[in-house]
């Protein structure tokens, strides 16, 4: 049963926010903007699990074999990797935020600026002493390895032109400093990975996860895909473009507060080994993830970090080579 939160807005076709339940009975928030774009956010994982354009086309990849309940993270949308990226530390791969239950934040403080043009939902995940008992035993053990009190606030916005925005804020509410990594592990839906190129990462240094995280320098032109790619690009720029030639669609990513960007496609062999990904689905996904990995963040008690990630789509009738994505990026101005 869906309970419109601001039902009068729905009648006037203004942006709307609705609280619903998924097939497991877990809470899911549905955002709609006035252009007809929609987004879906699962409180399990605090995870955006859908972003559709006005034609109802899904723009994020979701595995047909995704599991939407603990302990597995949902394979698709935008999983949140926190407080750790990969299996670099003492706790589980990519940390515990993506397989914990978040709540709707009744009082985002300090409130972020909102507008009538956007559908907005504020989520929070916090691990204070009183919350630790809520974690199941294994989680508690793992959380012990990263045993700090924090508040992770996530604001998800949709609109006014269909763009999807995530603002992440991590606050130290402990009595001692802590250090963390974070990534918004974004799965983009693409027509065919061999038809895709990524602009904006040229000439950057990257750590190659397929070669023991050795450091390399990217070549001078667009990134294309012919095999498994798993790289952490360092000091990545504010804007990155993912060009899908087949669909004549460009995803434009704008970020700030995230120093790095991860690019990942598992390709055929790894895809076959993943229980929650169909064998050929690697062809229809690409992860480009704003992240803080190489230089983790340390917060003193009371300090807060903020990172923003905004994604939009640009359609064009261009044929290969006719659209200069850097001109597209420049035309979109600065973060805003
Ligand atoms: O973002 C790239 C990556 O770190 C890859 O190494 C791969 O492990 C991917 O994340 C997915 O990780 P997951 O734990 O969700 O299977």
Automatic annotation (TrEMBL):
Pfam families according to UniProt: Aldose_epim
The keyword Isomerase is assigned to this record: yes
Methyltransferase in keyword set: no
EC class: isomerase
Residues that, per the record, bind substrate: 75, 93, 98
InterPro entries named among the record's database cross-references: Aldose_1/G6P_1-epimerase (IPR008183), G6P_1-epimerase (IPR025532), Gal_mutarotase_sf_dom (IPR011013), GH-type_carb-bd (IPR014718)
A GO CC annotation given for this chain: cytoplasm
Catalytic activity: alpha-D-glucose 6-phosphate = beta-D-glucose 6-phosphate
Biological process, per Gene Ontology: carbohydrate metabolic process
Enzyme Commission code: 5.1.3.15
Active-site residues, as the UniProt record annotates them: 185, 289
Keyword terms: Isomerase
Superkingdom of the source species: Eukaryota
Gene Ontology molecular function: carbohydrate binding; glucose-6-phosphate 1-epimerase activity
SUPFAM superfamilies for this protein: Galactose mutarotase-like
Record-linked CDD domains: D-hex-6-P-epi_like
Family label: Belongs to the glucose-6-phosphate 1-epimerase family.
Protein known as: glucose-6-phosphate 1-epimerase
Source organism: Ceratopteris richardii
Taxonomic lineage from the root: Eukaryota, Viridiplantae, Streptophyta, Embryophyta, Tracheophyta
């Amino acid at each position: 049963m869906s309970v419109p939160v601001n039902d009068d807005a729905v009648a006037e076709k203004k942006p709307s926010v609705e609280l619903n339940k998924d097939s497991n009975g877990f809470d899911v928030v549905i955002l709609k903007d006035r252009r007809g774009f929609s987004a879906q956010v699962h409180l399990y994982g605090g995870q955006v699990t859908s972003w559709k354009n006005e034609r109802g086309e899904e723009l994020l990849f979701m595995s047909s074999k995704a599991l939407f309940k603990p302990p597995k993270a949902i394979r698709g949308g935008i999983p949140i990797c926190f407080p750790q990226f990969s299996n670099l530390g003492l706790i589980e791969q990519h940390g515990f935020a993506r397989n914990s239950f978040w709540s709707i934040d009744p009082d985002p403080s300090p409130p972020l600026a909102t507008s009538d043009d956007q559908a907005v939902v504020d989520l929070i995940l916090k691990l204070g002493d009183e919350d630790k008992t809520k974690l199941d035993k294994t989680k508690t053990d793992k959380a012990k390895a990263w045993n700090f009190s924090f508040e992770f606030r996530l604001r998800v916005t949709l609109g006014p032109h269909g763009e999807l925005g995530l603002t992440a804020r991590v606050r130290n509410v402990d009595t001692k400093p802590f250090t963390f990594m974070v990534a918004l592990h974004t799965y983009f839906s693409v027509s065919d990975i061999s038809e895709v190129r990524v602009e904006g990462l040229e000439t950057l240094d990257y750590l190659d996860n397929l070669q023991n995280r050795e450091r390399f320098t990217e070549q001078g032109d667009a990134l294309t895909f012919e095999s498994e790619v798993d790289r952490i690009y360092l000091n990545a720029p504010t804007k990155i473009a993912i060009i899908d030639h087949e669909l004549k669609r460009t995803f434009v990513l704008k970020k700030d507060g995230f120093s790095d960007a991860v690019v990942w496609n598992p390709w055929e062999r790894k895809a076959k080994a993943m229980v929650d990904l169909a064998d050929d689905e690697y062809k229809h996904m690409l992860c480009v993830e704003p992240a803080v990995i190489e230089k983790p963040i340390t917060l003193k008690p009371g300090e807060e970090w903020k990172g923003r990630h905004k994604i939009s789509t640009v359609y064009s009738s261009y044929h290969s080579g006719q659209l200069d994505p850097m001109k597209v990026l420049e035309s979109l101005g600065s973060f805003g």
